[in-house]
Amino acid sequence: MLTNLLLATLLNAEAIGGYAAGCLQNGVALPLTGPGYQVIRTKRLRYYGHPTLISYLQTLANQTRMAGLPDLYIADLAMARGGPFTTGHRSHQTGLDADIWFRMANRPIGKGEQDSPAEWPLINERRYQVHPGRFGPQQLTLLRLAASKPEVARIFINPVLKAQVCKQASTEPWVAKLRPWVGHFSHFHVRLHCPIGSPQCEPQAEIPAGNGCGEELDAWLKDKPQLPNVSGINKVPTLPARCQQP
After folding, report:
1. Cα separation, 4 vs 174, whole angstroms
2. Is the Cβ–Cβ distance between 197 and 13 less than 8 Å?
3. Percentage above 70 pLDDT, the chain
4. How far is the C-alpha of 122 from the C-alpha of 174, rounded, in Å?
5. pTM
6. Backbone phi and psi for residue 164, each to the nearest 5 degrees, phi listed first
7. Are 82 and 59 spatial neighbours (Cβ–Cβ below 8 Å)?
8. Cα–Cα nearest to 119, from 133, 104, 140
9. Mean pLDDT across the stretch 208-237?
10. Which helix H or strand E contains 135, and what residues bound it?
11. Are strands 71-74 and 97-105 parallel, antiparallel or unpaired?
């Protein structure tokens, strides 16, 4: 049962606009450490989210810890009031997106590494192939737990890694939520549905029928897409009127 404090927070918080053109009202900060996770790159101040996202991440970390996985590395969520970042993602603006690394932590991250942790790419970008031994049972378990929750709209993942999941778990219903996208060599990107109490939140399009392991994925793998030209990535989008208020 929700406590009165959590219920009040949920009622006051609101995701406004679209994932790539919106803002966050009364978001809350994810504690920088907790059971089963550590927040990285904290100097960016991108560890805020809608309460549903914070609850999702803490629940996921508890579940992965109970499954015997090391601590999760959680990277960008949103800024305190959402909106566009000055560098990096176009999305993450409404407090409903989160990046989770495939690299996990067997020990607390050191202060010297906290803001620039070494990435652990699962893919050889030149060959567009998985590095041997880097996508194993732990990564599959993490994705299964992350994608199985009903509040998840989709998870963006590299096409090569989606193919690995299709080889091992194609009949499981959560696999459809894994959507191939460029980049994402060392992390995956969780996106939640618009929460209750956010009438101005613009929902994500519905996932196509099927598990996404057929012709759609084959097209991604054939083309071997790379990161697009990001020269305009820092252009401020047109935000809803409520996001422009001081």
Report:
1. 32
2. yes
3. 89
4. 21
5. 0.90
6. -65, -40
7. no
8. 104
9. 74
10. none
11. antiparallel
